[in-house]
Amino acid sequence: MTETFRLAPMAPFIRWLTWLLWALPVGFALAALASPRSVGLLWVALLLGVLYAAVWIWWRPGRFEVSPQGLALMFPGRRAMIAISDIESASVVDPKAFRQQFGLALRVGAGGLWGGFGWLWTRKGWVEFYVSALDRYVLIRRRRRIPLLISPEEPQRMVAMLERQLTASRR
Question: CA within 20 to 30 Å of 80's CA: 3, 48, 142, 148, which one?
Answer without folding.
Answer: 48
